[in-house]
């Protein structure tokens, strides 16, 4: 069985959050995991934003962008850990579907924003029936079982 990994589970596994214990339990399952580059990009951004807030306080886009030039090394360990996670666990990076009509239909059918609809469409396209997420927006997707 393949489990789709959402960005919030990845981030909570790599950085300490209130959901870290739950994320670790999911990733310790002896299952194959799947995700997309879109979800990994979101995990990169969210993780980097949390690190930025730890170092600098409130998030400001302009200041965040400056750190990319002036202090990128604060993100190195997180990015390295993410890369290690993807390469060491059985995580398959799937291609995201490019059917805009189906994406819009999923958005409407399940009342989802585009990124979440893309995850649902990816799962549907690849026959994935389980998703590891802390996002309650997926609870109404009838063919997906939400973990944890």
Concise structural overview:
The protein has 148 residues and is an alpha/beta fold. It has helices at residues 7-14, 20-27, 37-56, 61-70, 73-88, 100-110, 114-126, and strands at residues 2-5, 32-36, 91-94, 130-132, 145-147.
Can you walk me through this structure?
58% of the residues lie in helices and 13% in strands. It has 148 residues and is α/β, with parallel strands linked by helices. A five-stranded parallel beta sheet has the order 3-2-1-4-5, with helices on both faces. Helix 1 (7-14) packs across helix 3 and helix 6 (100-110) crosses helix 7.
How do the strands and helices of this protein lay out in sequence?
Layout: E1 2-5, H1 7-14, H2 20-27, E2 32-36, H3 37-56, H4 61-70, H5 73-88, E3 91-94, H6 100-110, H7 114-126, E4 130-132, E5 145-147
Helix pairs in contact: 1-2, 1-3, 3-5, 6-7
Structural class: alpha/beta
Helix content: 55-70%
Q: What's the alpha carbon Rg, rounded to whole Å?
A: 16 Å
Number of helices: 7
What is the N-to-C order of secondary-structure elements (H for helix, E for strand)?
Answer: EHHEHHHEHHEE
Point out poorly predicted stretches.
none
For the termini, the CA-CA separation is 15 Å
For the biggest β-sheet, the strand order reads: 3-2-1-4-5
Number of strands: 5
The fraction of residues assigned to DSSP E strands is 5-15%
Largest sheet: 5 strands, parallel
User: Average pLDDT value?
Assistant: 96
Shape: globular
């Amino acid at each position: 069985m393949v489990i789709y990994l959402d960005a919030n589970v990845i981030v909570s596994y790599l950085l300490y959050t209130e959901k870290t214990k739950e994320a670790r339990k999911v990733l310790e399952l002896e299952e194959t995991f799947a995700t997309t580059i879109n979800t990994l990009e979101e995990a990169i951004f969210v993780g980097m934003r949390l690190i930025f807030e730890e170092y600098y306080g409130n998030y400001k886009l302009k200041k965040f962008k400056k750190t990319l030039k002036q202090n990128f090394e604060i993100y190195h360990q997180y990015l390295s850990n993410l890369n290690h996670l993807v390469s060491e666990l059985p995580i398959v990076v799937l291609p995201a579907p490019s059917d805009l009509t189906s994406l819009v239909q999923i958005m409407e059918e399940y009342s989802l924003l585009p990124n979440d609809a893309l995850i649902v469409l990816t799962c549907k396209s690849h026959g994935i029936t389980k998703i590891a997420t802390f996002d309650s927006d997926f609870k109404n997707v009838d063919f997906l079982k939400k973990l944890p």
